[in-house]
Structure formats: C-alpha cells, structure tokens
Amino acid sequence: MTSTAGAIYSWQCNQNMLSLAQLYWTILDLQNRETRKHPEPYKLSDDKDVWQIFADQADNTFQEMLGHLSGFYIVTTGASQSYKENVDRAQLHTGFLSAIFSDFSLQEDAKKDLDKVLTNFAQAVGGFKIDMEA
Q1: Alpha-carbon distance values, 105 to 84, 96, 101, 102 (Å)
Q2: Domain ranges in the chain?
Q3: Are 115 and 94 in contact (CB under 8 A)?
Q4: Could you write out the DSSP letters of every residue in 14-26?
Q5: Per its UniProt entry, which superkingdom is the organism in (predicted)?
Q6: How far, in Å, CA of 30 to CA of 38, rounded?
Q7: What is the pTM of this model?
Q8: Angle 89-100/108-126 helices, nearest 10 degrees?
Q9: What is the pLDDT of residue 25?
C-alpha cells in the first residue's frame, strides 16, 4: 500500500470512528437529559446549560472511550506532566506555556496566540463558581 493510499485508508477509518462516536455521544446526551428530566435541548445562551454541555461532552467522551469504543483503542498509562513553580502572576502564563510546550519549537507569534487562548479561557472560567460541598 502506498503512503497516499495508507493515508486515505487511515482518514476513512477515522471518519468512521468519528461517526460512531457521534452516534454514541448523541445517545448518551439524550439519556443524560432524560435522567435530569430536561427533555429539550440545552441552550448556548444559558450559562448553566453551557457548563452542563461542556461537562456532558467530557463525560460522554470518557464513557465511550471506556465503553462501546474501547475495543478500537490501545489503552496505555499515557503521559503525565506536572508544573510547579513560584512566579509572579504576570509571568504565570509564559512560564506555564513554556513548560507545557517545551518539546515544541514554537515561534514567538505562536506563543502569543497560545497566551491569548489561555487568557481567554482563564477569564471565561474565572467567574464560574464551584461548590466544593456535595
């Protein structure tokens, strides 16, 4: 098999896996909403719904990787990375991004783009209140 044919075959397999995953995600989403007695679709205009969508998608993905689709994946312990350093708040993003992406040869403009993404994410979740008592 040529490298082009192999790439096309791999792409087709990935598309088929994505279709299966989306089917299972939809089924799990419907089951989750039924369990919560929330039959109508969630609304992106409602902050509570947005967080529930985010949580459900993460959970559904995890459940499918361990459930219906587990036979298609090679499960290993994976990689882990930790980051601990005392820095000024202004230097946190730069230090964090440098540590996380240290194995990549990122150009300065790419680092700035990643910093913008991290800043936007931090601002978006900054106002989110977490109840630690369950």
Answers
A1: 22, 15, 8, 8
A2: 3-72, 89-126
A3: yes
A4: HHHHHHHHHHHHH
A5: Eukaryota
A6: 9
A7: 0.44
A8: 120
A9: 83
